[in-house]
Amino acid sequence: MPRPVEALIHTEALAHNLARARAAAPDAKVWAVVKANAYGHGIEQAYAGLKGADGFALLDLREAERIRALGWRGPVLLLEGCFDARDLELCSRLNLWHTVHHEAQIDWLAAHKTHAPHHVFLKMNSGMNRLGFRPAAFAAAWRRLSGLTQVESIALMTHLSDADGSRGVAQQLAVFDEATRDLPGERTLANSAATLRFAPTVEKVRGDWVRPGIMVYGSSPDFPENGIADWDLRPTMSLRAQLIATQALKAGEQVGYGGRFTAERDMMLGVVACGYADGYPRVVPDGTPVLIGEARTRLVGRVSMDMITIDLTPAPDARPGSVATLWGVSPGGTVLPIDEIAQAAGTVGYELMCALAPRVPTRAV
């Protein structure tokens, strides 16, 4: 039989979380962000749950081709735009909308021969200092684009760097608002954190499009201040494996490489068929939560390439074949948010989702 580990992609949870984004910004259209292979979920597995979006936003042309191959005929946005002038040929063929964030991309458009003019999202650097035109140069870039026959429409875009933290969005919103005051075009500013925290009350944050990413995949953008239950989000990926062995430990015996954990009493140990080669983070400490059946227990001992070891005290009836849920939803419906595992690993839910190893089978349910 196949090795007993898999990731389940929950279609109804994806649709629910997308609806939460729409409810937070009811007068805006919604991009479903599916970059990084739909945050590790797989574009094909996630599509059924996300096709209620108004458009799909992603990074590379291969992902855009996959969305079109699934039958999507609506808007598809390249969030980082074209990386080479030749990319515009595929943009024309697939009818892709694309971001413009530096002068060379405007030059490429000016030289591009196309029968169908393009939808462009002009990006401003309002303070994050990654991509985009500085506010003082933004209007000039808009004028260049507006003079091209290759361009049908120009939307205005920025990215809010502190929507999940204490600084909030006011400063960047003011910068964006001032630099775009006299420019026409749709606006898009809000990522997941801005959509949940500010879009319900601040119309300018909602804009015309919101761009929810991590919230759609059942992780809280401002954890631990708020968990997924606070935002009414549902886990969309469940990483599950089975027990493949048990061990009866005596008090004082150690577990795993380096003997990091020492049994403080006689106890039963379970060996789970999942390790860091599957994408489970090696750096998590003893005590990291795991579900065995519906019981919440803890990891003990160092994570190995192919296995972890867990304390079976809360689940005395567990045997080889019993299901362990490493994050997500157990077979009986108990939730272990991915954010808790990410916090134990000193990272964020985004990374764990995206780091799911190719050897782990995924299936939509």
Name given to the CATH homologous superfamily of the largest domain: Alanine racemase
CATH fold topology of the largest domain:
TIM Barrel
N- to C-terminal separation?
Answer: 21 Å
User: Which consecutive residue ranges, at least 5 long each, have pLDDT under 50?
Assistant: none
Classification by helices and strands: alpha/beta
Which term fits the overall shape? elongated
CATH class of the largest domain: Alpha Beta
Mean pLDDT: 97
Name the beta content range. Answer: 15-25%
Radius of gyration equals 23 Å
Proportion of residues in helical segments? 25-40%
- How many helical stretches? 13
The number of strands is 19
Count of separate structural domains: 2
CATH architectural grouping of the largest domain: Alpha-Beta Barrel
The biggest beta sheet reads: 9 strands, mixed
Summarize the model shown.
With 365 residues, the chain is an alpha/beta fold. The protein contains 13 helices and 19 strands.
Molecular structure report:
There is one protein chain. The protein is an alpha/beta fold and 365 residues long. The protein folds into two domains: 11-221, TIM Barrel, CATH 3.20.20; 237-364, Lyase, Ornithine Decarboxylase, Chain A, domain 1. The chain has helices at residues 11-24, 35-39, 43-50, 61-69, 87-94, 103-111, 135-146, 170-180, 192-197, 203-206, 228-231, 338-345, 349-354, and strands at 5-9, 29-33, 55-58, 76-78, 97-100, 118-123, 151-157, 187-190, 209-210, 237-249, 254-255, 261-262, 267-272, 289-292, 295-298, 308-311, 323-329, 335-336, 362-364. Strands 1, 10, 13, 14, 15, 16, 17, 18 and 19 form a nine-stranded mixed β-sheet that branches. It has an eight-stranded parallel β-barrel with strand order 2-3-4-5-6-7-8-9, surrounded by four helices. Strands 11-12 form a two-stranded antiparallel ribbon. Helix 1 (11-24) crosses helix 3, helix 4 packs parallel to helix 5 and helix 7 packs across helix 8 (170-180). The model has no long low-confidence stretch (mean pLDDT 97).
